[in-house]
Records
---
Amino acid sequence: MIKTTIKNERLIAHKTECLVIFSTEEKNPSGKLAELDTKLNGIIKSSFKNKRFQGKLNQTILLNTKKPMQAEHLLLVGLGKSIEITADKLRQAAGTAAKFAEKSNLKTVSFFIPANDPANYISVALSESNESFAQTVVEGSLLSLHHFDEHKQLAKDKLSRLKKITLLTSLKSQVSSLRYSASKGQKITRAVLASRDLISQPSNIATPTYLADKAREFAKSFGMTCKVLATSDMKRLGMGALLGVAKGSEEPPVFIVLEHNGGTKNDPPVVIVGKGITFDTGGISLKPPASMDEMKMDMSGAAITLGTLSAAAALKIPLNIVGLVPASENMPSGRAIKPGDILTSMSGKTIEVLNTDAEGRLILADALTYAAKYKPKAVIDLATLTGAVIVALGHEAAAVLGNNNELILNLQKCGETTGERLWPLPIWPEHEKAIKSDIADLKNIASPGVGAGTITAGAFLKSFVGEIPWCHLDIAGTSWSSEEKPYTPKGATGFGVRLLTLFLEQEVKNNKNH
Ligand code: BES
Ligand code: ZN
Ligand code: ZN
């Protein structure tokens, strides 16, 4: 990952290829910018005046500087209207600036971090959301500069990439808090990038066994415990739904149990469950060929689970957190399950498999049953579960469904701050009825015509969680981006890691208040 350093110096005296200053949407430069402008003979003011720059969100202008300023260039980035500033807008602006610098072939870039005082509208917006300026800037810039290029023999542009980010403050008293927040931003970002890489990795490399190896690697790096259940363990536990999905594949399935024990011994854990289908062909209910390659990302929930646990462990969050990953391929073959087959899940409930492409809910059923053994205070599962969620919400939000409104609202709030939006969908008794089978306890798809594909999938999961506070995040629309966004390059987004990490941090605070 790119190096981040902190520097305490006067704005004008700081030597760098490019100095980034954030500006709100205004008619004229104000505050530090106005001060600087007098030293630069009004070039900033004239950019405002001739409307080349107005501080609109993610708007940029690169200005050449002159003595006495030591920076070679000044890059202004807009944050939008001051009363509408949010943590995520700052994160976007930082990403936009970093990406701009990279595309302009710059090797280093410095961000000016303003004083953290109550008169500073940006600090106020951030403190409400529990983030700090430096953390947000580090996240935005490092997230935007990520590349998945390990399979390129000669990534020519690799050499010309940005190498260092500096956070500049003119206040000595701010240095230690900047150091703390920057390091926090780095730890969280590292976890997001690790998740993105796992998601981007093709399925001939990222098999269930590979996911297990990665989980062991993360456990070792961050001091977590990791247990990997093999087929024989799954048989012993009666995980017939997971084993059923795995039947068509040559790759053995795994069930990963990753634990960060940051809390006290008997403190009930938060359990995070991630769908780990390393490739989803649909099975005998085969998917059409167009874009089938994208189904290598069907283990996004697993990647986000491993990433979140790593971030929590790196931040030493004082909670017990368990990550569960049922992992398998979904393949057609002579041994594969067929439409109409009946599986017996670990819970004892029987499932009529009417469509082998609705496999995610099958492997999650056994994982949710396993989760209950911990008597957890909450279970959150993440899954690229349904194409229907894209019809409902597009790529702008993940759906959140569950049996506990407080949990739903808390998660939604965290997502608002981190820029990972969640939008609720209901599960009504009619939906629960729609997945009852005539000849087994449940069927894995509702009858044609019922519609509400994301909800009936959620209703299916709900029947395996009982009374435990539970939420399900359908990330099928948000895990992969076909366009570049301010701090998200094309491809795997890592959606969920920052959101869940913030949620876990807030849990610690809520525990203290109770
Ligand atoms: N992995 C897919 C869902 C998916 C779709 C993820 C698009 C990412 C992008 C899931 O296993 C699936 O195939 N779901 C089916 C369910 C249907 C058979 C009820 C779907 O959405 O079509
Ligand atoms: Zn499927
Ligand atoms: Zn799937």
---
Amino acid sequence: MKLKNLIAISLAAISIVSCSEKPQKYASYDDYPVYKGNDLGVTYSAESSTFKAWSPEAEEVRLNLYEDGVIGAPYATYDMKYDGEGVWKYTVKEDLIGKFFTFQIKQNDKWLGTTPGIWAKAVGCNGDRAAIIDWNSTNPEGWENDKRPEMKSFTDAIIYEVHMRDFTISPSSGSSFPGKFLGLSETGTKSPEGEKTGLDHLLDLGISHVQILPMYDYGSIDETKLNQNNYNWGYDPKNYNVPEGGYSTDPYAPNVRIYELKSMIQKLHSVGIRVIMDVVYNHTFVGAESHLNLMAPGYFYRMKSDSTWSNGSGCGNETASERPMMRQFIIESVKYWINEYHIDGFRFDLMGIHDIETMKTIRAAVDEIDPSISIHGEGWAGGECAIPESERAVKQNAPLFAPIAVFSDNIRDGLRGNWTEGDAGGFLAGKDLDETIKFGIVGATNHPQVDFTNIIHSNAPYATTPAQVINYVSCHDDPCIVDKLKATCPEATIDEIIKMDLLAQTIVFTSQGVPFIYAGEEVLRDKKMVHNSYNSPDSINEINWSNKAKYNNVYKFYRSLIQLRRCHPAFRMNSAESVAENLRFMESEPGIIAYTINAKECGDSWSKIMVILNRNKEPKNINLDGETWNVYLKDETFIVEEKQKVSNTITINPTTAIILYQE
Ligand code: CA
């Protein structure tokens, strides 16, 4: 026994020494040491800066210091020392404020390209060098008092998906900061016709959340050539923990983009709007030369069995969230955006690429900060992934990662037609997808009156509560609703398109779940029939604010729908049981969906609500069983001020909705 103990002690001593002395080769990525500290990158003080980089298989690691964020050779280069747990360390005993740095590793006897590292929180123009900055200069006045607007339940949210550039780049926005962070928070702007634009418009509309297309530093736009008006959605991540330079007024000054994004968030918070960040941890802009891959080649990505890159994103690569350091990187990044930028929610791009365990761990980490911070994502991948679907955060697995929410492609394609079939219409075009629409109305929860064998894109309920599903008919992807309607109903006049559009959003806003609209649809924006407009010019993607005067009836209708939803909790139930008990579909002929909500039970000011939808091309009579109702919506008109009574029967016109209530 004694001898054994002695051997164990001496072995332990050897492993400690070898761990901090020299990195080794590992048989597999699973054997890589995991570093639990959160000080990777640089830790600055006026006296010294300590740099740390995790790169377990590197043979040597260099630290390069620069005077400038873009040009010139390093003014100093240091050999970093291995510090154990895969980490290389170097301390410079000078005040490095205002300097820039990169790491560079040697692996398999070859020096790879320089990288700011994956932990960079400030960078120079185009994000190739990390910056050492005075963080006090990034906080707008009063930042310490910035508060997240209150939100009791995620079903109270009304999400408005917006691209920084689309929103204000058109001269018709009247913005002083076209296409910039500051453009979204500017007040007092007007269209040429005198209609409110920008933030004033959002406040008048009544949305609760802006969901911003990628605003972290992405790679597809050359920040040195912003005057060339290049456009991209931004699903091509370069530096995950830094704002995009193209949205700042000065991409060369590393603190400016940070200050301006914080200012924007502060302003939105001050008027009661929460900010959801679109995050794209599932892939990087480039693979082999990405910052992730230049730190630890291969580790952060999934490879196929033949050692080629797996491409579940459809963009050339897919990250490996199940590996401990990738998982930790995502979690730390999400926490960083919450703590440093006060972000209120996250939309995970292609969440179906990530493993379930990672998503659950993220949710738990966010809960520790504030459970009201929302998380939702796309419950699918963009191609075949290198780990099984049963382990990934796809829509049908949603009960396993509740309460993280997923987008309902059911209600979207049920309404407008399948995304894979450009000119095939849906419910709006008169097609019998009634059961799919009913599935959308109950928020993808388990309801005794829905036939789950007869719905598109699913064969079972997947939302454990209505808060776990995002209802929408249109987003930045694919054609927007107006273009899809034009494609599926080529004979339709603009008035008929508007009718279908208003019916679509009436269904989105009265369905259980979380409603979501694509910016500009409230003024009938289109994308000139361009589906995948990710790098299309402004002329395709910009919101033309002159539309607001031109289609003012559309705008006012959207606003009324939002008011209806905000005032009536019956449309915002919080449990699947409540939906199953209080929402009753009525017997009806094909093409008519009619249901009542026992609103009183939902804490509503109305005791009972009836919603009737007609996809038929002719009017239909609905039997009201002798009861008397007040009309709230009929023929695209909201009757708010006076009372209009109806009893016995009501006639519903083609492609319209009726909403009735009893007090
Ligand atoms: Ca960039």
